[in-house]
Amino acid sequence: MAGSNKTNPTPPRWLLAELSYKCPLQCPYCSNPLDYAKYPDELSTEDWKRVLSEARKMGAVQLGFSGGEPLTRQDLVELVRYARELGYYSNLITSGYGLTEEKIVELKQAGLDHIQVSIQASSQELNDHIAGTATYQHKQQVARLVKKHGYPMVLCVVIHRENIHQMPEILQMAENLGADYLELANTQYYGWAHLNRDALLPTKEQFEEAEKIAQAYKEKVAGKMRIYYVVPDFYEDRPKACMNGWGTTFLTIAPDGTALPCHSARELPGLDCPNVKDYSISEIWNDSKTFNFFRGTEWMREPCKSCDEKHKDFGGCRCQAFLFNGDMYSTDPVCGKSPDRYRIDAAIASARELALSGTEKPLVFRNSKNSKQLC
Amino acid sequence: MTINPDLSIQFSPLHRLQWEEAQQKYVILYPEGMVELNQSSAEILKLCDGAHKPAQIVKALESKFETSGLSNDIHNFLNIALQNGWIKQD
């Protein structure tokens, strides 16, 4: 075990229930693992109920039903109702695909608190291209219906090089749809986004321009629409406080029951992630090797070890350290103090060269065929 | 945006106020977030039920805690709550 922690860990607060890896969309920045097709098993309704119940007892209160597309699960309404009875504040994170008005009403009656609809772009052509499926019109309709039935409406748009020029139109679209919250999520380069990084990473100038527009709009709609701007950490000098620290707050359960400290942790070697079919949530959270691996600061090496900011960012992201440096114990390469920062700069330069020369790499879409071919 | 003394106050339908047993405190839940409340904030928000005007909230709490002079503190908190969208007045 890399980081031992003798004191009791803080209890989980956020539970991400990835109900299924099945998804009708094929977004090339999907955060699911590249090899998701290897894990077709899904937990039973009873297993999910036990997970919800045990995590709630420990103190989890924010619950996201995610995937893949969570609407592919036939027992979604039943799970939502069960979650409400337990006192969760639950969120459906959906592409909107297959979401009818009838289902929106049924989920509301079951106690769902809010729905987060993703839209890929502000134009039909680009949305449908990125999603790999014709969904634009339906998504707009779903967003209106979510609002109509009294949910807080959260619109999520993942930002990357193909749509970053649409920032003004995306903001306008969100306002027109009456979004209560707009999440502008700059792509985080894990999973499929890591694979497609050269084609997705915007240039620094594009980032700065888009951020300026978004920040100005934030002031314009203050009090009406709240904008969450997820920062692009490649252009920062310090890493993000990933997951608010390993095993402190967030618990992800993958479709097959694998428990993860973050949804990307499956990519890390040697963690032996436990499965909820074998252990209780309490055993997994408090005692498992996986959840204790990077808890606290004992696992850190230099420059993190002696850094006065280590309690602020917890050394950054372990997955990013592994993907770039091949070493999950190393400092997140985004950090200006990291000897590996040049790797991020090289990635930026590589994407920039492609962007400026106009020779775009074709995107690898997230689907089972590509997953099986790649892994 | 400040509190109107003549209108009753409602808790926002887009947020949820809830007692958390594990944390032994009230929290406000909303998309992507949670605010932990101290006891006095929670007592004020529980009275934002659509039936109480600001002065009635002050009166009810001064009576409940057998004290006086809470008006300023309560109004300050109500204004913060309004700006955060936790409460509303129609």
TrEMBL record, chain A:
Its cofactor is [4Fe-4S] cluster. It catalyses: [PQQ precursor protein] + S-adenosyl-L-methionine = E-Y cross-linked-[PQQ precursor protein] + 5'-deoxyadenosine + L-methionine + H(+). Its EC number is 1.21.98.4. Residues 9-224 form the Radical SAM core domain. [4Fe-4S] cluster binds at C23, C27, C30. InterPro entries: 4Fe4S-binding_SPASM_dom (IPR023885), AdoMet-like_SPASM_containing (IPR034391), Aldolase_TIM (IPR013785), Elp3/MiaA/NifB-like_rSAM (IPR006638), MoaA_NifB_PqqE_Fe-S-bd_CS (IPR000385), PQQ_synth_PqqE_bac (IPR011843), PqqE-like (IPR017200), Radical_SAM_PqqE_MftC-like (IPR050377). Binds 1 [4Fe-4S] cluster. The cluster is coordinated with 3 cysteines and an exchangeable S-adenosyl-L-methionine. Pathway: Cofactor biosynthesis; pyrroloquinoline quinone biosynthesis. It comes from the Bacteria. The keyword S-adenosyl-L-methionine applies. Catalyzes the cross-linking of a glutamate residue and a tyrosine residue in the PqqA protein as part of the biosynthesis of pyrroloquinoline quinone (PQQ). Belongs to the radical SAM superfamily. PqqE family. This is PqqA peptide cyclase. It comes from Methylomonas subterranea.
UniProtKB/TrEMBL annotation, chain B:
It comes from the Bacteria. InterPro entries: PQQD, PqqD_bac, PqqD_sf. Keywords: PQQ biosynthesis. The keyword NADP does not apply. Pathway: Cofactor biosynthesis; pyrroloquinoline quinone biosynthesis. Monomer. Interacts with PqqE. This is Pyrroloquinoline quinone biosynthesis peptide chaperone PqqD. The lineage of its organism: Bacteria, Pseudomonadati, Pseudomonadota, Gammaproteobacteria, Methylococcales. The gene is pqqD.
